[in-house]
User: Fold this.
Amino acid sequence: MTVKRSRGAAAVAVVVPALVMSAIGLWGIDRGGMWRDEAVTFQVARRSLPQIWHLLHSVDAVHGLYYLLMHPVLAVRADEVALRLPSLCAAAVTAGLVAALGARLARPRVGLWAGLLYAVTPMTGHFAQEGRSYALVAAGAAGSTLLLVRAVGAGRAAPRAPCGARGPRGEWCWCVYGGVVAFTVLLHEMAVLVLLAHAATLALARVPRRVWWGWGCAAGGVLLVLGPLVLVSSGQAGQVAWLRPPGGGAVEGLLRSFTGPTRLVLGPYLLLIALALRPPLARRGELSLPAVALPLLLLPPAALLAVSRHWPLFDDRYVLYALAGAPLLAAAGADRLAGAATLVRVPRVRYAATLLGVFAVALAFVAQLPVLRADRDPARRPDNLAAVSAAAARRMSPGDPVLFLPALARRAAVAYPKGFRGTADIALREPGPVSGTLYGRETGAGELRRRLGRLDHLWVLAEPYALRSGWYSPEPAEQVKLALVREEFVPRAEFVRKGSVLRLYVRRPAAAGGEGEITRGPGTPPGPPRPARP
Assistant:
């Protein structure tokens, strides 16, 4: 009877956080527009499989598996909600897996608290509504961590024949573990750092040699699978050239992202984590919750930060999966804090302690509700391509020529073509699906000059930095576009949307050599007229 009750409590502890995460993720999931990274997923995953394969040879190989997974999803329904639903489902699964880890390594109420804490963390809610791979990677990392615990055969609920045992069963468990980790690192290669966390867990637990052998074989298989992806993606390193070495605030920013950005949550959260870290972290041959959660929380971000001081690769989304360690430690600390009350063998007291912990998580949710609400605003993203497309539709007429500066500014037209319907993309030679590129291949300098030579006006949709006088593109094609627009046209009107500038140019009069006066449209910040250059 006690075993059945314990299993029932563990099941509730897993299901409730998953449901809460689903509810939080569904709230505002249709926020009215995609931003640039989501738009890449949307346009690539809707291509044919040969076209996706063609693209991955030149760009975005690191996201190739994710695009292939999204291909059938968007084939069923191609809209913003469908784009984000896999991330939402993955976040809900991760919340349940975090709860399962807590229940297995400690007790059901620890799992319940940890899963709920994970669900109400704003960073988790943010990536649950992103049409990118990071929530799926977090689910894979949490699942592989649970499989590691099962493979070692640790925890109160260890099976009669643990996976760490000798024989076919042990080998099978390590194969499953290796398969999940391999799938996860193919979703995003930065997830390989989870192996570093798992190795530290085994070292803290001082597991026997046979466990190290099983884990080493699985980890070696993962590295072999990852090798070809690393070789291809290293040739596409220019995609992360925008990253900079992390500054002094990177650690604090990551800490607030993992635990909660508000002081009302951050202080108690850190106190509970400190309570969970009372030594010893683990006993010989047995995995404890701190020995599993602490390396997961610390080592992947620390390793990436250290590497990024010399080779900038750090972005907090690349280590989203490490967040799972924080709620596990905080829940373990809360369990120790509630230990005095639960020593009394009265079921009502135990239930009251569990409900008190749930109430505390609810207070944390209320404290962070303004952050969660603000995150549903499309303006919180770097750009809103739907708004850019709508602005273009209101101002451009069928047949109007449009030039994208640089070529990646074409993403608004690719994601939301309705706003550009009937316009003439003056520089485009081959569209992206045909050319195996994200934004198409553009015509040469001579042909572009010929096309521009017969125009009396031109719309330019540009990234804001491309219109600054000091901007210089290393791409010869972009230099040609800049020079031609500067030589032959003057600006007449400008409309600004976050992340994009839509500017109308007219042909420069033969006798004119001065600067043009810009008429500013709605949404354009006030200021002095800009010079007549892109």
About this structure: DSSP finds 23 helices and eight strands in the chain. Residues 154-162, 522-534 have pLDDT under 50 and may be disordered. Strands lie at 401-405, 424-425, 428-430, 441-442, 457-462, 489-497, 500-507, 519-520. The radius of gyration is 27 Å.
